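Fold this complex.
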Amino acid sequence: METDALSGRNEKLPTGRLHAAQYILALVLTILLVGLWRLQVLNTDSFRVLAEANRIRKVPVLAPRGKIFDREGRLIVDNYPSVSCFLLREQNMQNVDADLPMIANGLHIPLDQLQATVKRYQHAPKYEPIPVKEDITPDEQAFIEAHRNELPELETLDEQRRLYPPGGFAAHLIGYVGEVSEEMLNDPEYAEYEPGDVVGRSGIEKTYDSILRGRNGSRDVVVDSHGREIGHLGETPAEPGHDLRLTIDLDLQKVAEQALQGHNGAIVAMDPHTGEILAMVSRPTFDPNAFSVRIKRDEWQQILDDPNHPLLNKAIQAQLAPGSTFKIIMSAAGLQENVAQGMHVFCNGGGTFYGHYFKCDARHGMVDIDHAIPWSCDTYFYTLAQRLGIETIAKYAGEFGIGEKTGIDLPEEATGTMPSEEWKLRNYHEKWYAGETISVGIGQGAIAVTPIQLARALSGIASGGVMRRPHLVFPDEIPDDQKDEYEQMFPGSGDKTVPLDPANWETITDGMAAATLPGGTASASHLEGIDFAGKTGTAQTISHDEATKLGLHGSQTNAWFVGMTPRRNPDIVVVALWEGGTWGADSAHLVAAVVNAYVTKQRRLAGNLVAETPKPAAAPAASDAKPVVPQGVAKPQTGPQGTAKLQGTAQNTAGTL
Amino acid sequence: MRRFFRDFDWILLGMVLMLSVISVLEIYSATLHTKFVGFHKSQMVYLSIGLVLMFAMSKVSYQWLLEFAYWAYGVSIAALLAVLLVGTKVLGARRWIKLPGGIHFQPSEWVKLVLILTVARYFWSLASRKLTYKDILKAFALVGIPMLMVLKQPDLGTALTYGPILVCGLLLGGLRWKQALVLGIVFGTLFSALWFSGKLLKPYQKQRLTSFMSPDNDPRGSGYQIRQSLIAVGSGGLWGKGATKGTQTQGDFLPIPYTDFIFAAFCEEHGFVGAAFVLGLYFLILMRLIQNAQTAADLPGSFIVMGVASVMLFQIAVNVGMVIGMMPVTGIPLPLMSYGGSSVLYTFLALGMVMNVRMRRFVN
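Structure:
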């Protein structure tokens, strides 16, 4: 039936349309072939580049940072291997949230904390890895390895981390490292750095970063589309950073740290012949180990909000009135100007200058320069200041580096202030009042110095006017091609000689030596058998009347002491600043402890250790020092001036973190 | 039996087998470092079954098959309906029917065969007169109904392959230029209306269809696939990187390099020379099919062969076009190259029908 009907028709397809089909076929395949030619022959080079970029990842091989040693090669800062864990959101786009409980459990992180971390990165670009945990344990590392397939988003990174001495020991001079920040990366100065690089953020770590950091190498790793390593091509090895030997003497540093334990302030010990810093302490301190791992936001805020500014290196950043220690510079000025030589002043507990009464601490009677220094007679120096006038004082102070950076190789050194007529006109648009000169004569008023300035200036005077740029790293540690660069990096008063008449030199140094003898202001810190010379300073940070008005009690003074041994051409000069210390004599104890330790060590090294000489009056803090975590003594407000300066500098420091 | 050996298209089979070998080797290479390693063995099994089915199909007279075409068409529509109602959902699409004995059956591939027969029979019945618009409308319904049902599953790729059967039928069935123009205008308007109404395609299908024009707009979705495919093909260069040496293929950058993107993997590893060789083979196979259509004993035989050829050309054009960034990502496999049982079995059954027609060219 149907079959018959169907087979009845025997038409064929029109040949023309079949030919057309052949042409269509040829056309379609030609178009495809042309497309392939375009990709595979004409543009193959650019696609080859893309294919290589796809599969080859440059994995950095991190260079270990150079270690830091003391002058005798004893280790201060070390590295330790550490593994951190990151979360890569590109790897597992949908399920990251679902995996969080498992990750939290395996890595021992509270789930809500982990969720908060991930949430913080919600709007960050997806390729940015989220740091999940640092310093993970081998157990946690095993967990990550075991769950590579379920949790492909977890990635680990091997690093070398900084290991600093515990308890904030030498924290200010060493500084700390951190990840290079966004702003730094935009700064041409940091052109060599790449995101994620570790960079010195303060102290020696910052200054000598280019020596310490080394150069990261890289490994060309072949990866698949999940970023899994499936082979590797070549490797540029990392160049480890250079070790750095500091001028610090760990023995002295320990003594200085202990001496200042429990107080706020700073101690600097320096070799005046060379400018080498032997010890440098600032209190309160901080633990840089907390910074080498990403610091928690609240801990960081706590440090920034601390009224005692633990990050501030007071040895180079505290700018305070020097008090009576300034009298040494006054003496040098007075003697060099031939004013002080024959000058005799009768001290009846003070004197009236320009219609104002200025107090002295005691009734010293008839005083000449030989006694004025050990007795620290204010009346004498009021008179000397009046005779010299502010311009001469400022000229000499400037010669000795007051109001100028010393050029120490640490970042953010403060300049201090040396007032003068011109200075006042420039900054306050006011005329200089003669009465101000009288205050400056005893290191009060607008004058502000840093402990390091004082160390350089006074040891210079004791060395016959030869001053050295203080520094923490031996010059031969710096590669030759970088020496100039480093020199220019720290402009300041540096190396300088202010010729002193030998007679004047003798007068001043003998006066300082007498200060530690009976009758001197620091007689309690007398060191038997040691030629210990020095000068006390007690600087008011706020006048007594003002303190009462503000309802403040207790000491509103800073206690200074600059000590050295021997008196002429000293081998060591030590400056101690004790914020809130009542008398300069208090600080003298701190200095005495360091000087004594130094002399004892030198004698032991020389092999002629004298039988235990009578124990010197060690600093009270040193004698009952316990190895406890340092804590700043709660201190009432320093004067408005001091506080303002401290805060200003503290903010500068914070800004560079 | 002697006549079978004489009339069987050994040349066509030879070329088909050559492509099959290339396919197996490339599947081996593309799955070497993946969890799909060993798929080339399954492909060999499918090919063997395909060859058996091809011989079987060539033995059954296509005239006899044509008699049952409309019946088969009815059964196909019922099967597609069953898929939509009781089908197994895999990855959001309902394409499979579970048969007793654990066999999963995907009717849409077989419907293609039935459609080729049905369309052949339909246009054969119209061969004595000129096509009217009513005839054309009927043809559209004939193909359009199953097409929409498959689209509903949703399986855009398979649904699209029904298209060339209709187009081929119309063109060879006597469509006149004026009618073609009218149809073009009507469907152009209709398609744009449906496209913008969003009724016809799901958003992801739309995105897939358009992202090839600007892969960077969708760097993680189908734009990513196209980009990786272009890198694979382009970096292959003139001579290719060598078997199992393609970095895009072996590094898992190329998506599904053993099915839809197998040609990209092949191009990467064997270069323009290899690609041109494969395209040349396709050209010869299709020329051979057209020749068989010419020599067919009757009109329906020609229609069947041309139906098979048009589907194959369409698949090649769309798949290779996709791989080189000229066509959207539609999920259409490359015949005789892509891994997959359904695809292999369909192709070999379709070629079996071609053999069938050729072997009966001297009948009557």
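The domain at 250-274+314-656 of chain A is CATH 3.40.710.10 (Beta-lactamase).
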